Each structure stands twice: as structure tokens, then as C-alpha cells.
Amino acid sequence: MTVTLEEETEVSFPFDYKKLAEQVIDGALKAEGFPFEAEVSLLLVPLKAIQELNLEYRGIDAATDVLSFPLISYETPGDFTWIEQEEDNFNPDTNEAMLGDIVLCVDRVWEQAAEFGHSPEREYAFLILHSMLHLLGYDHMTKEDAAVMEEKQRRILNQMGILR
User: Fold this and answer.
1) Domain 2-160 in CATH: superfamily?
2) Domain of life, per the record (predicted)?
3) DSSP E strands: which ranges in the chain?
4) Do 105 and 53 touch, CB atoms closer than 8 A?
5) What is the mean pLDDT of residues 106-128?
6) Pairing verdict, β 38-45 and 2-7
7) Phi and psi for 39 in degrees, rounded to 5?
8) Crossing angle (nearest 10°) for helices 106-116 and 120-135
9) Which of 19, 63, 113, 116 could lock 51 by a disulfide, CB 3.0 to 4.6 Å apart?
10) How far is 129 from 149, CA to CA, in rounded Å?
11) CA-CA distance, 139 to 92, in Å (whole number)?
12) Hey, where are the domains in the chain?
């Protein structure tokens, strides 16, 4: 597994955020039974940058907490049986599946941790996991899909011992 982490803002989390990102990404892949080695890009940005990206890609002129840019299109969320090793979804240099990019707003991690009454570590892990589920084909556009994602998030974070 390869996690490429880039910082476009000051990051002063009181925990090893690179290690935690790798643990959450690995936890999501294992929980979902992803059958290949994978690569994920994680970009940490300030409010202004995520607002600009949200406007550019989603047409919403507001800051958000995390954006997901999947590189694999799934017919069914979490169904990896159709992915072939020879497909364009794999990095030819590493043979890892290129899952996509996560853009996470550092300012929102702090704000939402305070708002929801839990640690920045828990909020950071939650947002990465949420985005990983998007990279694995899940979404929350309907009430039913949202319930599936919420249950997966709760279960995976509990398994990892990352509690509210």
C-alpha cells in the first residue's frame, strides 16, 4: 500500500497524522476485502483551498471538510470482482490499484472535533475513512446508501479503537 501525503497548509495535529492516515486507509481496505495492493493520495489543505476545489468540482461555493476523487468506477459499491489486474486502474510501475485522491481540510478537522465533542484524531480518522468508502464505490445520496456508509464507518472505527 502506498499513501502519498502532501501538505498545503500548516499541520499541527498532536498525533502522528501520517501514520494514522495509513492505518485508517489500510483498515478500510481490509474491512472491505479489497483484493489488491492500493495507492491513495492524501492532500491536506486550508479552508480557502477546499472551498475553491468544492466550487470547481461540485459547483458549491463553500468550504467543506473532505473531498473524494475516485479513479475507479464501481457498478456496485464494494464489489471488486470485476477489476482486472491488466486494466488501466493499476499503476504500471507498482502494480497497485490507483484508488484516487482525498483532499482534507485541516481547519475543518479542528472545528468539527470541537463541534462534535471528540478529539481531532477521531475527526481526522473519520474523514479519511469516509473518503475511503467513497474511493471504494460507496455514496450517501439516498437515505439507504447513507445508512450503509454510516454503519461501515461506525464498525471500522470501532474495530480500530477510534471512538468518540
Assistant:
1) Metalloproteases ("zincins"), catalytic domain (3.40.390.30)
2) Bacteria
3) 2-7, 38-45, 66-70, 97-105
4) no
5) 97
6) parallel
7) -125, 140
8) 120
9) 63
10) 10
11) 28
12) 2-160
What's the grid cell of residue 28?
A: 478500510
Model's pTM, two decimal places? Answer: 0.95
Q: Please report which helix (H) or strand (E) contains residue 120, including its range.
A: helix 120-135
Please report where in the chains the cell 475513512 appears, as a residue. 129
Given a cut of 60, is residue 86 above it in pLDDT? no
Q: Which of 89, 85, 76, 84 is nearest to 136 (CA)?
A: 76
Task: Let me know: does 1 contact 96? Beta carbons within 8 Å.
Answer: yes
Cell 461506525, located at residue: 154
Does the pLDDT of residue 85 top 80, yes or no? no
How confident is the model over 42-46, as a mean pLDDT?
A: 98
Sheet-wide strand order for 97-105:
2-7, 38-45, 97-105, 66-70
Instruction: Tell me how far apart the alpha carbons of residues 130 and 112 are, in angstroms, rounded to a whole number.
Output: 14
For residue 44, the one-letter residue type is L
Q: What are the cell numbers at 22? A: 495509513
